[in-house]
Amino acid sequence: MAITLCFQGIRSGEAIRLDWRYVDFERRSIFIHRSKNGQQRSVPMHPRVFSALHTLWMERGQPKEGTVFLNYFGKPFANRAEGSGGGNPLLRPHNVACKAAGIKDFTPHSWRHHWASWMVMSGCDLFTLMRLGGWSNLSMVQRYAAVSSDHMKEAILRLS
């Protein structure tokens, strides 16, 4: 799941709800059938996500449907957005993984900020980023897509 959050920029709730029906290996795309803002979208699959999901799909016997990401017990994560209590069900396992890696102050939602900033620093325009990330307006994109001071320095040095 971390690879998908890192390279696709999808919301953790979208990852929790991701079903094999919406992973298209032929077209190399992921269809987000239900998002936070209610808008559906199809996003191209990053090659690393394609590889990780295809491996997982093969290991699971090439299912045609069913939840993609399962918890430690092999069950779907609780979808707490639908009335089973608040909080992100990825928070605890994510925190355990971050602690083991020596990473502090990085939540599941931080992946989305990281991805948006990385996309902008890689040359992605804000309108394309808005469509890929499922934001409804550019002001929301601007809240997510921060650029590093090194990136700003490189940008200013490109002037001739």
Tell me what you see in this structure.
The protein has 160 residues and is mainly α. The protein is built from eight helices and three strands, in the order ααβββαααααα. The protein has a single domain, classed as Intergrase catalytic core (hpI Integrase, Chain A, Orthogonal Bundle). Helix content is 46%, strand content 6%. Strands 1-2-3 form a three-stranded antiparallel beta sheet, with no helix packed on it. The mean pLDDT is 90.
The CATH superfamily label reads Intergrase catalytic core
As for the CATH topology, it is: hpI Integrase, Chain A
Q: How do the strands of the widest beta sheet line up side by side?
A: 1-2-3
The CATH architecture classification is: Orthogonal Bundle
What is the total domain count? 1
Taken in chain order, the helices and strands follow as HHEEEHHHHHH
First CA to last CA: what distance?
43 Å
Helix content: 40-55%
Query: What is the mean predicted local confidence, pLDDT?
Result: 90
CATH class: Mainly Alpha
Strand content: 5-15%
Return the structural class: mainly alpha
Sheet having the most strands: 3 strands, antiparallel
Figure out the total of helices: 8
Radius of gyration (CA) equals 17 Å
Shape: globular
- Low-pLDDT runs of 5+ residues are none
Number of strands: 3
